[in-house]
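To: structure subgroup
Subject: Chain for Friday's discussion

All,

I'm putting the inputs and outputs inline so they're searchable in the archive.
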Amino acid sequence: MNPAPASPWTARFLGSGPGRFLTGRRPLGRRTFLAWCITLVLIRYNVDRSVAWQAGSQGWSIIDTRTIYAYLFEAWLLTDPDLAGAYWPRLAAVALPTLALGLMLTLGRIRDAGLHPVWAVLSLVPGVKLVFFAILAGVPSKETVAAAGTEATRPMGKLDRWLPRSRWGCALAAALASGGLALIPILASTKLFQSYGWGLFIITPYGLGMISAGLYAYRHPLGRKEAALVASMSVSVAGALLFGLAIEGVICLAMAAPFAFILAILGAATVRVVLEATGRRRDDRMMCIALLAAPLMTAGEVVLGPVPFRFTVSTEVHIAAPPEIVWPLIVDVPELPPAHDLWSRVGIATFRRAWTKGEGEGRVRYCEFDTGIAREPVVRWEPPHRLDLRVEYTPPAMEEWTFYRHIHPEHLDGFYQVDAASFELDPVAGGTLLRGTTVYRHGLHPAWYWAWWSDRIVRDLQRRVLAETKLRAESAAARPVPLGRDLVP
């Protein structure tokens, strides 16, 4: 059965322009692909900036916060109505076409290089796609590779002699070398630039996997298992060095580990498929890209300045007591029993008590944590129904879990900041609906990943405070009223 003929518009599109790259009718060479990438980046940069300016944005950055994924995250997960109404429709009209065109061109370049089309997915991963585009701009076409034949055996260089001959020895040497090299961009990002962004958490582990796999391939064939193994070993080495040199503690390393292992294995797999497609045993250009990617991304973030996201976490509880009894228990919170949850055991800041000083508009509430005291001026005082607070100072979010006496990474200062807190007491049948809300921001990227951790920590803290308030309020409501209070003097 013959397929139905294509429409004239479809035939015209697939026969000319980017459509020929998609179908493989016209090879998309390295130079053409690079020119298209630069053109699309410049167009997207200026259009995004124009859209953000027209919508009144004060926090726009091409690195992170104004990508298509960030808009989806803000408009959907954060349910910010202003952002959704101002940004999302405008950006979607611009981002989706450029995203589709970029994917189409990437497929054309991948077909020309002889890679599997599934690797075009990397063009959709923020941060990683920039490294992947640079790699595609250097990979020769499959016709060129076929004409050149297999790679000629070259005399051993210094690097070849340095790597052990055994597979395990070579894997260990590659992991040690790449893990040690990773300390350079990590220390530059955290200590010098104090940036905890895409360059640190995305590009560094991805490049770590590329370097370790590339070194291993100098000596031995790089299969799937070998690529995953050497990448995992390199991440483990880098983590051990960060802990052993008292740069980071166990908790932060454990939080970053899932992302780091996945990206490192992905980077090693990228090296494997490129070497397999080109018939080479090594590719020095890919190694250079892997070495330069993280520093360049970090420098770009420092110059352009990614803006911290704002997050809102709310928890509510039903209390079998009137608002008049609940109100004083949230204004001045008596000291809570010691916390025994997981977060408190691993060093996350734990709430202890709160008290209020002053009168009228000058009233200030103080919250004591085991890492310090937060100062919270009262913004809205409507007893016994509403209490809004503006947080002026946030104590460190945690104390790092380490064998050393004390370490204080830069991300403990200013990268997590609570902006506001509020309590709403709504009278309902049988008592009070108490709702606690916390608005905070952090400067760690990718924001959605770290929000997965921070949201749970904040919500567990809220639940602990509200549960204790419920217990105390219901206990107070159940006490018998002294008989003398019913007498009129």
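Points worth raising on Friday:
The longest helix spans residues 447-478.
Residues 14-141 form one domain.

D.
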